[in-house]
Structures are given as structure tokens and as C-alpha cells.
Amino acid sequence: MPSLLLHSWKRVRQHGRRRSPHRSEDVREVQNYLNPGAEHWLDWFHITMRLTVLSQQAKGFRETKAKLMEEVTKSLERIKHFLWHGNVYQAMQEIDGLDLDLDGQEGAEKLAKGVQELSIYVRNNQGFIPNFGERYRQGENVSTAFVESTVNQVVSKRMVKRQQMQWSLRAAHLLLQIRTGVLDGKLEDTFRRWYPNFRPNAATPVEAVSAA
Is there a single domain that holds both residue 160 and residue 126? Predict the structure, then answer.
């Protein structure tokens, strides 16, 4: 997998991205190169996490600047609503307005920085923000948070020293490569390349009928 990514990165850099100053653009090109027919979009979980952090920071003004806290909270709710429905333009308008409101506000420097980072994040990924609401209504996935949580729990448990079957970093890395090979259907071909005498390819139904 690392060698494949490195090869893809080099191919991307050779085809029109050599002068690109934005590394994130190169990463997107690598994704498209590896899976040209795939649909790439942001995970809703990561968007909401950023908004949740900003909401928590705004609550710190409850006693000193209650009005500011109320305005920021309402603005963040509108931003979340726009992003949920894939309306990036309105979301950016709201983010820029919030940024102006926080400019020069004493004690709100950290919150203002967070809003600016959110603006950069949304602007750089605006092409990968779908209509999450529509996807959800159609029964499609909008987040893989449950998968990430499961992976973190399994890896954390296996990396604990008190665990009888403790993983090393190298073993965990190799196991993930094997699992990836199983999921994308390439593990058997890899074994066959390493060991030419490995079992032959299973005949397809059409080949089986022809042979009969």
C-alpha cells in the first residue's frame, strides 16, 4: 500500500500538478488517480466536530458576554444547517459574517481563530460537501464515525502492554495491509505473484460450462 501511494503521488506530480503550491490539491488528485470512478465527499462527523468545538468555546462567554454567546451560537446553528443541506455558498457567507463579528472582540481570539480555520477548511473542501440531508433521506451513509470508533477500540485494546496478544506497530501495519488486500480482492493475486505454484484461479461459471 505505501509503495502504491508513492507511485500514485509521483504520477500525479508528473501530470500537471508540478507547480501546485497546495499539497491538499495533490492529495485530492491522488484519490482521483487511485479511484477515478469513486465519489469523494467529506465525512459529516468531522464537520460537526469542528462546529461542536466552536460551540463549546462560545459557551465560555456565558457570564461575561451573554449576547455575543447567543449570536455566535445561532450563527453556528445556521452554518450547520447550510452545510447539512450542501449549501456551501450560504455557509461561507455566514462564516465570513461571524468572522467579522468576532474581529477585535476582547477575549474571543481563540474562537475567532477557530472560525477562520473553519472557513479555510470549508473553502478548500467545498467540492466534496454533498447534500447530506438528501443522502440521509435516501438511506446513504453520511458518516463513518462508527467505523473509526470501532477501529480505535480494537487497535487500542491490542496495543495495551497488559494484553496477552499485544500487537507491535509493525505487526499492526502488516495486518492492516493484509485486511486491505482481502477487502479489495487482491490478496490472492499477490500470493500467486509471490508463489507461482499457489492454487490456480477459480473458474467462473461461464468457464466451468465451457470446460464441460
Answer: no
Q: Taking the model in full, what pTM does it have?
A: 0.60
Average pLDDT, the chain: 77
- Map grid coordinates 461459471 to a residue: 205
Q: How far apart are CA 48 and CA 37, in angstroms?
A: 27
Buried b or exposed e, range 3-24, using 16+ CB within 10 angstroms: eeeeebbeebeeeebeeeeeee
Q: For residue 150, what are the contacts with CB-CB under 8 A and spacing of at least 6?
A: none
In terms of domains, do 48 and 119 share one?
yes
Rounded to whole angstroms, how far apart are CA atoms 133 and 171? 40
Residue 203, in any domain of the structure: no
Radius of gyration of the chain, Cα coordinates, nearest whole angstrom: 24
Write out pLDDT tens, residues 22-69: 445 555 666 666 666 667 788 898 899 999 999 998 888 766 678 888
Contact 154, 134 (CB under 8 A): no
